[in-house]
Amino acid sequence: MSHVLRLKKSNCQNCYKCIRHCPVKSIRFSGGQAHIIEDECILCGTCFVVCPQNAKEIVDDTELVKVMLQQDAPVYLSMAPSFVANYHVGIESINDAAVKLGFAGAEETAIGATIVKREYDKMVNAGDESCMISSCCHSVNLLIQKHYPDLLNRLVDIASPMQAHAIDIKRRHPDAKVVFVGPCVAKKDEALQYADIVDATLTFENLSNWFNEEGIVLEDKKDSRNQSKARIFPTSGGILKTMEKSNPNFKYMVVDGVENCMAALEDIRHGGKGNVFIEMSACSGSCMNGPVMEKYNSHPVIEYMEIAGYAGMEDFPVEQPELNQIRKNFDVIDLNQMKPPEREIQATLRKMGKYKPSDQLNCGTCGYESCREKAIAVLQGKAEIGMCLPYMREKAEDFSNIIFDNTPNGLIVVNERLEIQQLNPAACEILNVRRATDVMGEQIVTLLEPKPFMDALETRKPVFMCVYLAEYDRYVEQTVLYDKKYGMVFCLMRDVSDEARERARKEEIRLQTTDIADKVVDKQMRIVQEIASLLGETAAETKIALTKLKESISDE
Fold this sequence. Notes:
4 iron, 4 sulfur cluster binding, about 15% strand, Cytosolic_Fe-S_CAF, 4Fe-4S, metal ion binding, about 550 residues, PAS-like_dom_sf
């Protein structure tokens, strides 16, 4: 498949909204990013419409078309019939603006729709098939080619209005190039798949931006030609409104929206019978509600009335080509998607925390309808186990509970009214609380001094302190924090009673040791003084004796 729908990786925010809305689940998540599985995608554009981060983008061929205009061949615009609901002007106004940009002119794709509906009428009148499905919508064609290949023989093998109109333009202008403009993503892929029919495609937004760049303002005018019946094509049932429906043996029905189309195809696959022609459109409300319509709010009644009021009662006067010129081949597109064995599915369910059927909530948060579908997607490499919100929440809660219940530190959580919300086992032990439920909802003052909590609330700053809880005979280090986001005050308590008592015991020993040392010093000083006194007396007596001996010797 061509790369016409791309993902802007930096914008993807893991919301899984695209996979929830993707009807064929053709989106793979890996590394926190969404990836479009092109082989499975039907280019319905749903992911582009629902993405809240604008992470999907459609390839813009504006520069390619500008290069075409610089060449010698004339270039014509083929305007999808829904253009009148998008621009609120007629084809003459678009033509005038297109000529200013350098185009040879602009025509209505509804001309090609007239060619197509005539072939539908011929096939219905021939009555060769019991069930026929229109082939105007390329997304429906891709849906059948990829996901319902066994029903490919029910798909009418006629070109789309876009292709039929391009063939008609090139019949009248052999050297011309054709650029289709419409509200559809899939048409870009159709143009690329069937080469040499449509040369480039633009969205309504692409063309509007181009007009704005060149300062071109569309004139508010519409023609009222009666030969324009096929202008009603982009509405729900629009194809059938243009057909003759002259075969009384055939019934006619309209199915729009991919989910409804899939339900109808399932019904046909499993025995739906009857001569019926089914108009199928991937967009709910058909093309007037295409994914690239330039609108932010849907106005289905206003848009329908605008399209219906622009359509006439007769067919466009267009030359019908030979059938072989507008015959279209549809090949089966093999997805090569193998369903994993049951044992692997069950093993994956267990990894997701789904051990029994009651664990399979089938909440759809991951984007899949059931936990089983999610497990299959995991095995196919399209999803990650972590995409399961209940599983991740339970895992996070279990992890938090393990820490909350087993940490040696006490934890108390109170709300902004200072009412106790949570109390872990360590806090219960510190505060001599028998059961946490006994104090849930009570004011914190029933357990602790409320001032630190009030200070944390008022200042929005952490409060640290070490306090002696006389009632519990404990020394506790408290850290009180306020979380503005959740409106909660958290108190972390560390019982330091043993450490405090050990410090007190050491302090007492230090004081006792100091006292003993002082006493020893005093005693030693007394001894020294006594010894000094004795030594002093002895020294005086010795001096007297020696003096007398000296004098005695001198006299002799």
